[in-house]
Amino acid sequence: MKIKLRLMQVASGACLAALAISAQAAEQMLDLTLPASSFYTGNENSFMLAATDSDVVKANINTQAATPAAPEFEPPLFSKRKIHQYLGLSTIALAGLTALAAPEACTDSNCPPRPVNGTHATLAKATIVMAAATIATGLYAHWNDFSLEDGWSDPDNLHVLLGVTGAALMAYAVNKSANSSVPVSHAGIAEAGAVLMVVAVKLTW
User: DSSP assignment of 36-66, as one string?
Assistant: First the structure.
């Protein structure tokens, strides 16, 4: 009985030894290297390196050169707002010409008759017509810009107030002079109106 048990132990030991040897041989055949090294081809060009700062700058320059620059915005020469500006500047220019064409003041009793249709009078009338056209186009082009809720200190509201007041003063001066048979003092009123119009233009220029 002891001999049989001994034979079984020897047989079991031999089986275990054979299994150990086969397992050791299998372990030697396994490839335990890292995946990266197992697939390494040796071709260094297959990897892309990060771009340097100089490469990025060159790429941006090439992109900018390929993309054409957008043209600068140029407002049209003629629009309702532009026409209002042109008429306002023309009114101021005519007011200046009217002042330059004013006849010399005469204080003697032997003054020549005052010309009512001379250059000064014609320019004065043209100034008033131009001022009326400026106000009309201003109301049409900038109606939405005027609001009493913003107060009189708002530049748009001051522009309207000073422009209309200046035109009214010039119209009053021209009417005062035209309806008088004798020379009357009206230059100061007309010049004050012209100055108010200049300030009105300057506020929104």
Answer: HHHS--S-GGGSPPPPPHHHHHHHHHHHHHH
Decide: helix, strand or coil at residue 75: coil
Count of beta carbons in the 10 Å neighbourhood of residue 110: 5
Q: Is residue 6 one of the residues assigned to a domain?
A: no
Domain, as residue range, for 128: 80-103+115-204
Segment 71-80, tens digit of pLDDT: 676 767 778 8
Give the tens place of pLDDT for each residue, 155-201.
888 999 999 999 999 999 999 888 877 778 888 999 999 999 999 99
Count of domains for the chain: 1
Contact 134/154 with Cβ under 8 angstroms?
no
- From the list 151, 99, 106, the residue with the least C-alpha distance to 124 is 99
In a domain, 162, yes or no: yes
The answer to whether residue 150 is domain-embedded is: yes
Tell me the pLDDT tens digit for each residue of 92-104: 999 999 999 888 7
**pTM, to two decimals:** 0.60
Taken in order 172, 173, 178, 179, the sign of the CA dihedral is positive
